[in-house]
Design a protein that fits this description.
CATH class: Mainly Alpha
Family: Belongs to the cytochrome P450 family.
Largest sheet: 5 strands, mixed
Structural class: alpha+beta
Helix content: 40-55%
Protein name: Cytochrome P450
CATH architecture: Orthogonal Bundle
Shape: globular
Strand order of the largest sheet: 1-2-8-5-3
Number of helices: 19
InterPro entries: Cyt_P450 (IPR001128), Cyt_P450_B (IPR002397), Cyt_P450_CS (IPR017972), Cyt_P450_sf (IPR036396)
Keywords: Heme, Iron, Metal-binding, Monooxygenase, Oxidoreductase
Number of domains: 1
Number of strands: 12
Distance between the termini: 43 Å
CATH superfamily: Cytochrome P450
Radius of gyration: 21 Å
Mean pLDDT: 86
Length: 403
């Protein structure tokens, strides 16, 4: 059996709903696969963990970007994504993480939990009548998307009237970080990014004049007053990162969790007993990101799974097959919330562990447990519809009804 372009194959009509048998074959037979873009795709857990922990796998320094990450030099949308915290090496990464972490206070997180519970209750109330009347409701559109939109908007300070316009542009720009993104995709991303960037600049200016209780205000004021502060590009990139990370992956993870409630009814008691365990297993079993949107480059010649990778090569971790590697997770295709998921790669490891992990996990835990408590007889009216997109592998619609 020859190896086609793995990233194209997982989006094929006969594979997209369940790519795991194919990915398992790739992991066992071609664990390091070079995509058409030239990037090396890693499917084994040990190889992906090695990349996430750093070592010889780094982002290029700024003066190396034009040669090693040419798209960033040509396209503003990609350039801004290279300025986010996850795209930096120490000591720059350490500095950015410190600047970000100081605003994620316990007081702010406690307020977000209370707000998230209220938002979940409102969203569930909105779908209750149609579900009780026997209607089919798309829970992706009714729950999975509006919850993270409202939570991240309240945290950041995006006005309600701007949210549909703003979040509607996110998928197009995120297409720029998929391996092998075409020039057409990159041009569209640049166009949408230009509008978002101007919006962010205007929002920060408004918050400087009229402060609110949100992160946009905190960052705008610290940007104006602190000696150690974000540069302009870093500031826009951090806002961008919160916008993108707070929506796309979280919405995908919520829909995956709802899908698992209906597919694994024998495990739903965990949503009463220890909902966090159900959520952690859901995130391992079905990673919202098929492949990392963050590239790394080899600072020296390396070898992974017996395959030599030359210095200066782009490597991408494939999180979905790595999270089902039987070398780490026994019987990996079984949905089992009792298992140890501490080595799941969904949110990264080491210094690049996702700063938004606790926020996303909180949203999933609150919503999934409340959903099952209110609608214990929920079922899918038909199979989920999957969106043909990377790097996030996401359900497009999730038609549900009650038994």
């Amino acid at each position: 059996m020859t190896v086609p372009d793995v990233l194209a194959r997982v989006l094929d009509e006969d594979t997209i709903a369940d790519p795991y048998p194919y990915l398992s074959w790739v992991r066992e037979n071609h664990p390091v696969h070079q995509a058409k873009s030239g990037a090396y795709l890693l499917t084994r857990h040990a190889d992906c963990m090695a990349v996430q922990l750093g070592g010889p796998f780094r982002m290029p320094d700024e003066n190396q970007l034009p040669d090693m990450h040419a798209k960033a030099a040509r396209h503003r949308s990609v350039w801004l994504l290279t300025k986010t915290m996850t795209m930096h090496n120490p000591p720059g990464h350490t500095r950015l993480r410190r600047l970000l972490s100081r605003d994620f206070t316990r007081r702010r997180m406690d307020a977000l939990r209370a707000a998230t519970e209220q938002i979940c209750d409102e969203l569930l109330c909105a779908v209750e009548e149609p579900l009780r009347d026997g209607e089919v409701v798309d829970l992706h559109g009714a729950l999975s998307v509006p919850l993270p939109v409202r939570v991240i908007s309240d945290l950041m300070g995006f006005p309600e009237q701007d949210r549909t316009w703003l979040f509607g542009k996110v998928p197009t720009v995120l297409g720029a970080i998929a391996p092998g993104a075409s020039e057409e995709v990159l041009a569209l991303a640049d166009k949408e990014n230009e509008a978002i960037e101007q919006y962010m600049i205007d929002l920060l200016a408004r918050r400087s004049r009229d402060p609110k209780e949100d992160l946009a205000t905190a960052w705008a004021l610290s940007h104006a007053e602190d000696a150690d502060r974000f540069t302009h590009d870093e500031l826009i990139s951090m806002l961008w990162g919160m916008l993108a990370g707070g929506l796309a992956t979280t919405a995908a993870a919520i829909s995956n969790g709802i899908n698992h409630i209906t597919r694994h009814p024998g495990q739903t008691h965990w949503l009463r007993d220890d909902a966090a365990k159900f959520v952690d297993e859901s995130l391992r079993y079905e990673s919202p990101s098929m492949v990392s949107g963050v590239p790394r480059y080899t600072a020296e010649d390396v070898e992974l799974s017996g395959v030599p990778i030359p210095r200066g090569s782009e490597v991408r971790t494939m999180l979905a097959p790595a999270n089902r590697d039987p070398a780490v997770f026994p019987d990996p295709d079984r949905f089992d919330p009792s298992r140890d998921t501490s080595k799941s790669l969904t949110f990264g490891h080491g210094i690049h562990h996702c700063l938004g992990f606790n926020l996303a996990r909180m949203e999933l835990t609150i919503l999934l447990s409340a959903l099952h408590r209110r609608f214990p007889d929920l079922r899918l009216a038909e199979a989920p519809h999957w969106r043909r997109s990377l790097p996030v592998r996401a359900i497009e619609s999730l038609p549900a009804t009650l038994n």
